[in-house]
Amino acid sequence: MSLDSDRDRNAKRRWLPRAEPKGWTSLDLLAEQEAHLRPHKPKSLCGLSFLDSAFHSRHRTRRVQESRLQPRLLREPAAPAMSIFEYNGSAVVAMVGKNCFAIASDRRLGVQLQTIATDFKRVFKIHDKLYIGLSGLATDAQTLYQRLVFRHKLYQLREERDMKPQTFASLVSALLYEKRFGPYFCQPVIAGLGEDNEPFICTMDCIGAKELAKDFVVSGTASESLYGACESMYKPNMEPDELFETISQALLSSVDRDCLSGWGGYVLLVTPTEVQERVLKSRMD
Amino acid sequence: MECVIGVVGRDFAVVAADTSAVQSILVHKTDEDKVMVLDSHKLMGASGEPGDRVQFTEFIQKNLHLYQFRNNIPLSTAATANFTRGELATALRKNPYSVNILLAGFDSDVGASMYYIDYIATFHKIEKGAFGYGSYFCLSLMDKLYRPDMSVEEAVDLVDKCIKEIQLRLVVAPQNFIVKIVDKDGAREYAKRAYTGDTPSEAATVTA
Description:
The complex is a heterodimer.
Chain A (H helix, E strand, L loop, with lengths): L2 H10 L13 H12 L14 H5 L5 H6 L1 H7 L15 E6 L4 E6 L2 E3 L2 E4 L5 E5 L2 E7 L1 H22 L5 H14 L7 E8 L5 E6 L5 E4 L2 E5 L2 H11 L6 H16 L9 E6 L4 E6 L5
Antiparallel strand pairs in A: 1-2, 1-10, 2-11, 3-4, 5-6, 6-7, 7-8, 8-9, 11-12
Helix pairs in contact in A: 1-2, 8-9
Chain B lengths: L3 E5 L3 E7 L2 E3 L2 E4 L5 E5 L2 E7 L1 H22 L5 H16 L6 E9 L3 E7 L5 E4 L1 E4 L2 H12 L6 H18 L6 E8 L2 E9 L14
Antiparallel strand pairs in B: 1-2, 1-10, 2-11, 3-4, 5-6, 6-7, 7-8, 8-9, 11-12
Main location (chain B): cytoplasm
Organism (chain B): Zizania palustris (Northern wild rice)
Protein name (chain B): Proteasome subunit beta
């Protein structure tokens, strides 16, 4: 059996109906074969290769997925290749003040470059002194929030008290690492008042690597801008009013430089005695 | 290709969808109903993979009926939407449905509400929304013309303007649409819209 007939057999096994130009060189065909042998990067229906574990486990259906390539192009416009973390767009920041903390997020819900809503909630309450902001893929943020509330309510029933922020951060980290090889595409920002009303903030990546900080933590598509803005505007031991001003300015100036986040801001300021929620008006673009 | 449009007005919600069943370049039928009446006061407009769409919407409808049989009261719109979202989210990492949903309903205590549920189970309550290629033309039109206290005639007029815009500007625009409404009197079909093709389409007039 010659090498040429092997290549022809592989060429016929291609899933995509394609007119092959005459005069293919052996190098081209070899490259094609090697492309088939490379680890298959499954394409999901809108060009995002994120549902790796789900699609990998069903090799039989790869053929179905690929053969729908033509209608898929008719169905959805070809979008620029975006990371799954940038699918919905988000910005979350938390800052520590004097016996208080503030957590803020943007309000845009988008689908790649299209804006769906401008009142999307990204910061969720766990208990009166503990809040979590979830940036990244919106569906995973919602699923993760539901699981965390469930776990916290169970904890409250068993322990008859609220969870400490440090404990909660470990819980989130463990929950995320459980899905190490098929993760939730979220980066949480956790902020709470611990014992003696000591503010606690931390962030983690999508597989639960905790990062504690004493001053501020950021996450989302605008995170790089947020780092810069927070670093320059932050001062230690700010009073609640000043903290609110600082975090609002940092958030708004950062999301103005990011097309995927913005469309308003939502700031939550928590002190030992009260919680202030405010919605910021910003550039709607 | 498949367009679903939804608008919430004063104590009612309107969901419109195109009625073409298309596979690649072939139009199988032009009267496919994509807005399913889930129960007496709920509408589910769905777009996406045809098999998944029919299967998933019927699944939700039957589960809704089961709940009503078991508990003697119908499920609220918010609960239905959350249930739908939960089913999509559970299936997402196993066997994903590729169905985008606009769920609209009327509850006596809350009034009319509409929920946007993406195919990856992104869940959000909205007043106006659209799926598909039509959304590129409709969303900005709705941003301009929508008001929260619209009457039925105004809302249907807005939907008509969206349909006109789709038929004017989308390259393979669906020819026929179905418009359904849900209010305190229930969920029912309101109108059908067809492209007659006699006169050239004009752009919708929008007073600034």
